């Protein structure tokens, strides 16, 4: 009988051991699942800096894009169409309400067509075609038409409500199953051993999250809080825009932007819908009259209104009286990237110029086309150092378009502003009269502004042609010592305007990009 008890004890012990092993394995699996694996919601739990655990999007993403404005939305759609798995994180997915980013030059529209997004800037958002500019000075006017003879009838500039344009692109993103668009605020880049691995952000519910990808592209706009990690920012604030909407009025030149060389600085008008005209009044510096206490309305009524073309005066005063006056600080920042493995900057987070010429979206869309083409041969983005070295070519290859538009914007703004300096006054007069000559004198500069002729050397030659034209006018009927002195100061002033801008863009990158080794970078071996 004793052997039965012994045998029973052995069997119980064996069964207990097996049971214990099953329980232990199950518990260990659960612990491993919490510490390393994906839970039922598709998140990975990772320790945060304060020791708590932070949910993290499972690593099935190729590209994380910060921001879904013009640049971020266009880039997300483009990379999604290329088959990339993209996670876009945008601070606010409601329709933006801005007073800039409303005019797309013809060169930018051509890039939009290359990206397959041209239907986002058509009649569905009441976008208006723009065929050129009208320039006003002291009651005189000249019309500058885009050189579109060699293009189809659909090719022109486009003007629209910025928010409608962005929302239309976001709708296109939603049609791609491999692109996730999420509302959240990115707080920091996740870095490991000098390589950017992704981002940390707070989702719409306020939960702290992480998203990982081999490539992070930061497109969070002019107020970017991440750019300092990826570039050396030198942000200037040359002026402010005061924005109004004029309703049910006709521009003197239909489907044209209007630039008034006012005092102290330019005034812009352009259509943004079939019944609305945007007015932007430039105010130099960082301070503007107060809107709240009525000082702004007085300034617009007493200083600006007398300079507005008579056809627009009534609608302008009605818009001022209506009181929906918006202001925005204009910013300028040359591109000074710090190549960082795993990340790249794009859009206004990377490069800004004065919005006078409406070139910002053209630069951004051109950059996106270029970046798409550089990434196209790569099936694997995981070799961050090799990818970073290869993408250094991006910063050189983008220069023809970006430097032409950036330099023109900065130079024109300074020339168009009023000044008590007689030499600057002569330069302003010379610029208006040079453009009024028509022919090559008008066609050349407007092709540069439109983004159709991205050649920095042509910009340089036209700018100094204006200066030489101004000096020539001073020498007629005959040169006096004062005229020679004034002409000399005009040339020096012109040099003082353009050379610092060129220096900021980089002389070698702007005029001799083929001498830079990165220009010839080949894709890394896969």
Find the count of extended strands (DSSP E, 2+ residues). Answer: 19
Shape: globular
- The number of distinct helices, counting runs of at least 4 residues, comes to 14
Biggest sheet, strands in spatial order?
A: 1-2-12-11-10-4-3-13-19
Largest sheet: 9 strands, mixed
Q: What would CATH call the class of the largest domain?
A: Alpha Beta
By secondary-structure content and strand pairing, the structural class works out as: alpha/beta
Mean pLDDT, all residues: 90
Which range does the strand content fall in?
15-25%
CATH topology annotation of the largest domain: FAD/NAD(P)-binding domain
Under CATH, the homologous superfamily of the largest domain reads FAD/NAD(P)-binding domain
Stretches where pLDDT is under 50 for at least 5 consecutive residues are 1-16, 18-53
Distance from first to last alpha carbon: 74 Å
| Fraction of residues in H or I helices | 40-55%
Number of domains: 3
**Rg, Cα atoms, Å:** 29 Å
CATH-derived architecture of the largest domain: 3-Layer(bba) Sandwich
What does this structure look like?
- This protein is an alpha/beta fold and 526 residues long.
- The chain folds into 3 domains: 63-121 and 160-234 and 333-382, 3-Layer(bba) Sandwich (FAD/NAD(P)-binding domain), CATH 3.50.50.60; 236-332, Alpha-Beta Plaits (2-Layer Sandwich), CATH 3.30.70; 406-510, no CATH class.
- Helix content is 40%, strand content 21%.
- It contains 14 helices and 19 strands.
- It has a 9-stranded mixed beta sheet.
- Strand 16 and strand 17 form a beta hairpin.
- Helix 3 (106-114) packs parallel to helix 7 (360-375).
- The radius of gyration is 29 Å and the shape is globular.
- The model is unreliable at 1-16 and 18-53 (pLDDT under 50).
- Its main location: membrane.
- Belongs to the squalene monooxygenase family.
- One of its GO terms (cellular component) is membrane.
């Amino acid at each position: 009988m004793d052997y039965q008890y012994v045998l029973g004890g052995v069997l119980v012990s064996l069964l207990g051991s097996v049971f214990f092993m099953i329980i232990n394995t199950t518990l260990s699996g659960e612990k491993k699942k919490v510490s390393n694996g994906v839970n039922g919601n598709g998140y990975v739990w990772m320790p945060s800096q304060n020791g708590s655990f932070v949910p993290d999007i499972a690593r099935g993403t190729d590209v994380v894009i910060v921001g879904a404005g013009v640049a971020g939305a266009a880039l997300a759609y483009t990379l999604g169409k290329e088959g990339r798995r993209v996670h876009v994180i945008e601070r606010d997915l409601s329709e933006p309400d801005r007073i800039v980013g409303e005019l797309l030059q013809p060169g930018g529209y051509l890039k939009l067509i290359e990206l397959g997004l041209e239907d986002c800037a058509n009649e569905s958002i009441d976008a208006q075609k723009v065929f050129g500019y009208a320039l006003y000075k002291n009651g005189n006017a000249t019309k500058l038409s885009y050189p579109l003879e060699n293009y189809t009838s659909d090719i022109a500039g486009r003007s629209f409500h910025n928010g409608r344009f962005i929302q239309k692109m976001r709708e296109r993103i939603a049609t791609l199953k491999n692109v996730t668009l999420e509302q959240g605020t990115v707080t920091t880049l996740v870095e490991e051993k000098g390589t950017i691995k992704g981002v940390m952000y707070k989702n719409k519910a306020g939960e702290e999250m992480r998203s990982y990808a081999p490539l992070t592209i930061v497109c969070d706009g002019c107020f970017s809080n991440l750019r300092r990690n990826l570039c050396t920012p030198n942000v200037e604030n040359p002026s402010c825009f005061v924005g109004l909407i004029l309703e049910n009025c006709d521009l003197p030149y239909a489907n044209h932007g209007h630039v008034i060389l006012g005092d102290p600085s330019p005034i812009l008008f352009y259509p943004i819908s079939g019944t609305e005209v945007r007015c932007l009044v430039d105010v130099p510096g960082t301070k503007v009259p107060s809107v709240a206490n009525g000082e702004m309305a007085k300034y617009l009524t007493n200083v600006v209104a007398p300079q507005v073309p008579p056809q627009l005066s009534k609608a302008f005063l009605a818009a001022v009286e209506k009181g929906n006056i918006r202001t925005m600080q204009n910013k300028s920042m040359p591109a000074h990237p710090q190549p960082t493995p795993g990340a790249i900057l794009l859009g206004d987070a990377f490069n800004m110029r004065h919005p006078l010429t409406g070139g910002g979206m053209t630069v951004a869309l051109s950059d996106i086309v270029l970046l798409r083409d550089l990434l196209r041969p790569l099936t694997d983005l995981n070799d961050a150092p090799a990818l970073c070295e290869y993408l250094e070519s991006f910063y050189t290859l983008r220069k023809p378009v970006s430097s032409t538009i950036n330099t023109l914007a900065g130079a024109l703004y300074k020339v168009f502003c009023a000044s008590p300096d007689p030499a600057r006054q002569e330069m302003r007069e010379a610029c208006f009269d040079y453009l009024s000559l028509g022919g090559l004198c008008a066609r050349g500069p407007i092709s540069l502004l439109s983004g159709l002729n991205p050649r920095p050397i042509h910009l340089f030659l036209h700018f100094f042609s204006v200066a030489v034209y101004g000096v020539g006018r001073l020498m007629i009927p005959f040169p006096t010592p004062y005229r020679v002195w004034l002409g000399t100061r005009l040339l020096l002033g012109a040099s003082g305007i353009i050379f610092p801008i060129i220096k900021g863009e980089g002389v070698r990158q702007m005029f001799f990009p083929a001498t830079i080794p990165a220009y010839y970078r080949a894709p890394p071996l896969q």
